[in-house]
Amino acid sequence: MSRSLLWLDNLRLSFCTSEAQIEALRGINLSLGAGERLGIVGESGSGKSQLCFATLGLLPDNAQVSGRVCFDGIDLLTADAQTVQRLRGNQLAMIFQDPMSALNPYLTVGRQLTEVLRWHERLSRRAAQARAVDLLERVRLPEASIRMRAYPHELSGGMRQRVMIAMALLCEPRLLIADEPTTALDVTVQTDIMALLQTASERRALMLISHDLHLAAGVCQRIVVMYAGLFVEIGSVEDLFTRPAHPYTRGLLRAVPGHQGPAREPLYSIPGQPPQPDQIPQGCAFAPRCEQAFSRCHHELPPLHEIRAGHWRACHLDAAL
Amino acid sequence: MTALLQIESLSVSYPLDRHRHLLAVEKVSVELPSGTTLAIVGESGCGKSTLARAVCGLTPISSGTVRLQGERIGSPHQPVDTRRIGHLVQYIFQDPFDALDPRLTVRKILEEPLRYLARQLTAKERENRILQALSEVALAAEHLERFPHEFSGGQAQRIGIARALVTEPRLLLCDEPVSALDVSIQAQIINLLLDLQRNRQLGLFMISHDLRVVRHLADRILVLYLGQVMEIAPTSALFGAAHHPYTHALLTAIPKSDPAAERERLRCTQAHLQPPPSPIARPTGCVFYSRCPHADQRCRTERPQRTRINEQHVVYCHHPVTNPNLSTLKSE
Questions:
Q1: In A, residues 254-313, which contact B (CB 8 Å cutoff)?
Q2: Interchain proximity B152–A273, CB inside 8 Å
Q3: For residue A316, what are the CA distances in angstroms to A96, A161, A319, B24?
Q4: In chain A, residues 163-202 whose CB comes closer than 8 Å to chain B
Q5: Suppose B224 and one of A210, B42, B45, B55 were both cysteines; which one would form an S-S bond, judging by CB atoms 3.0 to 4.6 Å apart?
Q6: What is the pLDDT of residues A78-119, one digit of tens each?
Q7: With an 8 Å Cβ cutoff, are B216 and A263 in contact?
Q8: For residue B1, is pLDDT > 70?
Q9: Which residues of A, range 112-151, sit inside 8 Å of B by Cβ?
Q10: Comparing C-alpha atoms, which of B76, B110, B70, B73 is closest to residue B89?
Q11: What is the phi/psi pair of residue B154, to 5°?
């Protein structure tokens, strides 16, 4: 097995607000190999986006982080700001959910793209220009050299997301983090962007955040399911789809409409709703919604354990179930 | 029997400036029988929401008519009178938090439509309606004195649905009712809508971009592109034997349930999608011409007329196709 590129060790993240202490990540352990494509799936508030932000060190002032975030052997939490800044954008790059709010509306696409290169790689204006056009062509933006002079609002949503992807790829990062890259886009464009992401993530590691298991499955090799700030199941795409081991994963797979079951019949739905981040129940956070929960689930937090090679879950239920 | 809702040749245009208009919806005709669901699908900007807004009087009609239970309720000369028909036609919005006034308690939120649209009710009757609607969406009386921010997204959407129910409508216009919700909550709301429809014989006019949701909920589907109807078909026919190339393109955009098939689907997506042309400068022939893999000279100049595949199924295309293998959209 290849040495891990990103290694998270007992990563905890909480936010202090005037009213409460909010725990966003409650002890995350993860090892991501070079070139590996990992999907992180969960509902809103499960902490999946915070995991990206914590990895990149993009956290607000009231955040408290503990644990370790090691990228290529360097602990990003203890490293000095300069080192982190050099890595970020260069070796680690992020694609945000909404390209309209992530791009600067005052600057042309070309200016935003070349800025990265001039800053990180000290390229000349002309060399940066050439490289940017080349990348826009690689992400199949039509009329790339003309679009360099366009402002973000002059592009369609799909084109803007292409620009975002191009920007993330500029310095050939070794790890690409994509946070719901298609949520703001039309379904027809979604397929296109996912296909592009599939190609873009060849030869580099990818962390894809999504709330859609099926969408993540098309691009990733391994999938992590998050619930209330913790991983509840990790496994290969095949494991998760053919042998989902956590009741929450099974529920998620069953709740998607239109795939199975007769139309207009009641859909399977997970009862209740995810816990508020300041009111995470004791024991297994999913227990109040779990149909198979028993008394132990309500008191004792189930540890993540391996149930077969590479397939982990955090659940007290008999593994044979 | 007359349909609950009849839309005849409805057009809506928005003035851009003194000379130009944006034709958001053009000559749409469709019917919605009572107790059934009609879904409108299409990309953003295709006119889905405008169509729904025109039906309930939130947007003026430029030409055509809207009939409710056989009675004409809206035309260019007779704008939809929300005071008169508001209690029969209610709207459910995409983002429940945007749609609920944060300063009002749930009780106030549910009371307001009754004060305007059902003035004949006594205070007691109002209270009964509110409690009835609340229990139908599985919320309790104890929630009445709370404010919207105290609820989760799924619960807030239930409040939005309860508000639509208090006036005892016949038709619900649902604008992406579940797309702001998480998968596990989505299923709960879908089930709720199915239940309500069954119990109250509601007609649902549903807007969605998620074909998986539509497939589960709808009886009939209308595919809209740049304000024009491309195809109208019963759900099973649309998923089984769609005829319009644009419908095929939408169908291939649905993620597959099997990971291997999904990987293959992404691998086959080579073509880069052109964005739809601007609705201001629309093509003269078929509006889908610029993205259609089957387009020819005739499509460029001549607008396709309605072709009936059968009693229930119509398509607007010069070259209707049933073979989905030919369905990828045109590349650059």
A1: 255-260, 263-264, 266-271, 273-274, 276
A2: yes
A3: 36, 42, 8, 55
A4: 186-192, 194-195, 198
A5: B42
A6: 999 899 988 988 899 999 888 888 899 999 999 999 998 888
A7: yes
A8: no
A9: 140, 142
A10: B73
A11: -65, -40
The one-letter amino acid at B138: A
Length of chain A: 321
> In B, which residues are within 8 Å of A255 by CB distance?
183-184, 186-187
pLDDT on residue B5: 96
Partner A contacted by B191 (CB < 8 A): yes
Listed residue (B106, B97, B109, B163) closest to B136, CA to CA: B163
Chain length of chain B: 332
Q: Which residues of B touch A137 (CB under 8 A)?
A: none
CA–CA separation, A111 vs A254, rounded Å?
A: 46
User: Encoding tokens for residue A130?
Assistant: 């050439």
Give the ipTM.
Answer: 0.84
For residue range B238-280, list pLDDT tens digits in order: 998 999 999 998 998 888 889 999 988 888 875 555 667 777 7
Within chain A, all domains assigned CATH 3.40.50.300 are found at 4-91+171-320
The stretch A110-131 carries a mean pLDDT of 91
- Among A154, A182, A256, most B C-beta atoms within 10 A, so best to mutate, is A256
What's the CA gap between A216 and A222, in Å, rounded? 9
Burial B64-98 (b: 16+ CB within 10 A, else e): bbbbbbeeebbbeeeebeeeebbbbbbbbbbbbee
Handedness of CA A277, A95, A97, A116 (dihedral sign): positive
- The alpha carbon of residue B207 is apart from the nearest alpha carbon of chain A, in Å, by 14
Fold of the A4-91+171-320 domain: Rossmann fold (3.40.50)
- What is the pTM (predicted TM-score) of this model? 0.88
Chain A closest-CA separation from residue B286 CA (Å): 19
Residue A26 pLDDT level (bands cut at 50, 70, 90): very high
Neighbours of B264 (CB within 10 A): 13
Greater pLDDT, B169 or B290: B169
| Bridge pairing between strands B220-225 and B228-234 | antiparallel
Amino acid A261: pLDDT:
65
d(CA B300, CA B303): 8
